[in-house]
Amino acid sequence: MMSLKIPFIAVTLLAFVACGNVCAETPQPSTDKVDKPLAVAIFSRNKTRDAGYEKYADMLRSGLVSQLSGKFTVIDKDDVVNVFERETKKEVTKSSDLWSYLQMLSELKKEEKEADKQGNVDNRTIEQKSSALRISQAIGANYFLIADVEEIVSNNIKDTVYGNQVNDMRITADLAVKILDGVRGGTILAENVRVEKRLRGDEKTIFNPEDVAQALPVLMKQAAGDVAKKFLDNIEKVRGFEVDAVKVKFKVKTNVPSSTVEIDGMAIGTAPGEFQAISGAHRIRVTKDGYRAFERDVNIIANAEFSVSLEETGERQDAKIKSDTAEADNYSTKKKADAEYKHGPKKTADW
User: Fold this and answer.
1) Residue 102: how many other CB atoms lie within 10 Å
2) Sign of the dihedral through C-alpha 322, 328, 332, 335
3) Whole-number Å distance between alpha carbons of 118 and 270
C-alpha cells in the first residue's frame, strides 16, 4: 500500500504545481482596471418666460433619472437638496466630502436669510449660488448633465386629408443640453434637442390650454428619452474626454474699485486685477456693498479680459441724495455764517 501512495502523492503534487503555474500565468482581472460606474449629477432648469413650466422641468429631470439610473450612479438635485434641508436643522459633522458639502450649503442657507449692509437679501437658489463645476466637485460627480427647457410652443394646424378638414395641434419643446466634465468644468457636449407631439382632431375639434397641459407630461417623458439617448450615444466621447488642467491668466475690470470677484462661488480677490483659473466654463460674480451683484457664465481663456459695470442699488442712490442735500445745506449755512461774521447780521428795513 505504501508503494502505491507515494507515486499517487507525487503525481498529485505535480498536478498542483502545474495548475498553479497555469493559474499564475493566466491574466486575472484587476479591480483597478474594472470600470467604475460613472457618477452623473442631473439638473434641469426652466428657462422659459412662464414660471408655471417649472413643474415640467422637474418632470424632465425625473425622467432622466429614471432613464439613466440603471446604467450610472445618478446624483439627483433632490437627493442633495432634501438632505441639505434636513441638515440645516442640526449640526453637521465633517465625516465625508458629502457632509462637508452639506455644511457649506447650510452656511449658504443662513446667508440667504441675512441682510447685507445695504439691506439686500441674497435669495439665489443653491444651483445659482454654486456653479455646476463647484457642485460636481463637492458631491463627487464625474459628469454633469444639464437639460434646460428653453421654450414650449403650441400651434394650431389646419389641413385637408382625403378631402376631410382636420384641426390638429402641434406642441414643441426646445431643450438646451450640456454635458460637463465634473472635475474641471470642461464642456464635453453642447447641443439643442427638439421634441414635439401632435394632437389629432377633426373639423369640429377645438383645442384649449387644458389639452396642452395634459400633453406636456408625455412630451417631457419623450424629451427625457431623447436626451438620455444623446448621452448614451456619446458615452465613449464622455469617458475619453480629457480636460486641459493648465491655469490661464485673465483680467477683471470694474467701474467700482475694490469689488469682490468670485469664480464658481469662491472669492479669489478684488477688481480691478489679474487672476488665474483653469480654462473653460466658469461662473463669475462681482459684488460690492451698495451695488447690484453682477453674475454671468463665462468661458475663460488665456489673457481674457472682462469689463464689469456695477449699478447702484436704490438704497445707495437715496443715501447719496440725502448726503448731497445735507452737504449743500451745510455749505449754505456755513456761507451765511461767514457773511454774518464779516459784515454782521443782515438788517431789515424798519418802516
Assistant:
1) 22
2) positive
3) 19
**CB atoms inside a 10 Å sphere around CB 329:** 10
User: Model-level pTM?
Assistant: 0.50
Q: What is the tens place of the pLDDT at every residue in 295-330?
A: 888 888 889 999 999 988 866 566 666 666 667 667
Cis check for the bond before 272: say yes or no (omega within 30 of 0).
yes
Q: Left if phi > 0, otherwise alpha if psi is -120 to 50, otherwise beta: which for 138?
A: alpha
Secondary element (H or E) of residue 170: strand 164-181
Domain(s) of CATH 3.40.50.10610: residues in the chain: 39-239
Q: For 247-308, which CATH class? A: mainly beta
C-alpha cell at 303: 489673457
pLDDT in tens, 246-280: 678 999 999 999 999 998 778 889 999 999 987 77
Question: Which bin fits 325, alpha (ψ -120 to 50), beta or left (φ > 0)?
Answer: alpha
